[in-house]
Every structure is written in C-alpha cells, then in structure tokens.
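Incident log entry.

Two folding requests arrived from the same account within the same minute. Monitoring flagged them as a possible duplicate submission, but the sequences differ. Recording both here for audit purposes.

Request one:
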Amino acid sequence: MDYNNIKNFDELIELEHGKIGTESRNDYEERAQMFIVSEMLKEARLQANMTQEELALRAGTKKSYISKIENAKGNIQLSTLIRIFEKGLNRKVGLTFL
C-alpha cells in the first residue's frame, strides 16, 4: 500500500478498508462501532465502581454477556444494551442515525 499520498484519515481508511459500501469497509465499520460500544460500557462500569458480575445482576443478564460486550465479541441486542446502561448503570441512551 502506498501511504505517501494520504492527506487525511478518511483517505487512510479508504486505502486500508475500501470505499464506503464495500463489504470490507462495512466489516471495518461494524468492528469499529462494536469497539466504541465496548469501551463506553467498560468505562461507565468502572466509573460506577462495579464488577461485571454486579452489573449483570442489576441489568438482569449474565456476567459472560457483559464480558462479551466489553471484549467486542458477538452480537448485541439493542434492547439488552439499553437495559444494561439504563437499569444497570442508571445512564440514559440516545441514538443517532447518519
């Protein structure tokens, strides 16, 4: 790959993962979003001074599910993610569609 002519981050992403709408770019975008969600959950849980087990108990799910999310593995149901943040962490969730 030729990085010499890269002028911004968008060009770098396109060079490494393809144009928007391609399968490789969609896969990258999905993994990036999953990473962001995992880090947000981990940070919120640590700020609340809770273990994964405590959070799971409050949110009505399993520790293994919390761990999966925090490690950006597997699929997440939106309703469960909202319940984890709202019931488990007492945080409001807002969605933005672009």
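Request two (distinct sequence, not a duplicate):
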Amino acid sequence: MLWTTLLFALLIAGGAAAFVLWPLLSRAAPDVPVEDDRLTDLFSRKDSVLIAIKDLEFDHQVGKLNEEDYQRFNNRLRQQAVGYLQQIDKLAPQSAQLDESLEAEIARLRKTRTPAVAVNGKTAPVAQVALPAGETPVHFCTNCGQPLAAQHKFCANCGTAA
C-alpha cells in the first residue's frame, strides 16, 4: 500500500514537472500575437495629445493660462492631434470606414429617439412637457447619467464638466 501511494505521488509529480518544463525544452517557437507597433504608437500618442488638450482647457478655465498662451498651445496640440489622426487613417483605412458607419448609425438612432425631460420625478418627451413657471428641466451627466441641477458646472458623481 505504501509503495502504490509513493508510485502514484511520483507519477503526479513527474507529470507536473513535465507540464512545467515542456515549453522550456521544446524547439517550437511560441505563438506571439503580432501587433503593428507603429499603429499602437500612433494611438497612444493621439490619446496623450487629447488628454493634454483637455488639461489645457481646464487650466484655461480655472485661470492658470492667459488667452494668448491658451490659443498658442491649443492650436499646436490640435494640429498634432489632426496629424496623428491622418497618419492613423493612412495605416488603417478600414477604421475610418468603421467610424463613418458608426456615426451614421448613431445619427439614425438620434433621429428616431425623442428627447426626454424629467419633471417632478416623471420622464416625458420634450414636446409634451409644459413646465410650471420658475421650474427648470433636469439635466443629466453625459458621462455617468446622474441628474444635475441647472446651477452645477460639474457632476458630483464623476467630476465631468456639465
């Protein structure tokens, strides 16, 4: 009984060791996903420029930048972003077609949906709502969907500008 247990444990340990060591000992090349490094680099640069534009706009709104500096930096960053987008379109033209079809679908859905307004806790289409005097419609955050008061400039939930 002891010998069978030891033999069984030895077989399991040998199988585990073979499973772990097989990739190291085999001569076959591992499967490596091939990515277009240039395209990935362009996407990351485009994203960083767009973040820089957003940060620049925020700095201008809070008064850290004067108008002249803001315009100069904003124009330079926007030119860089356009350049990156053009390079991406040259490397991956099918992505531009996908973007166009997506935008067409979004436009089609927006035409069919009737915008709604929340009044006194109920949602109704804008055309059917007659607001009482002095009452303003409730706005919603474009990022997280939380209701916003008319005087709020930022969402209290996620911080997105209203």
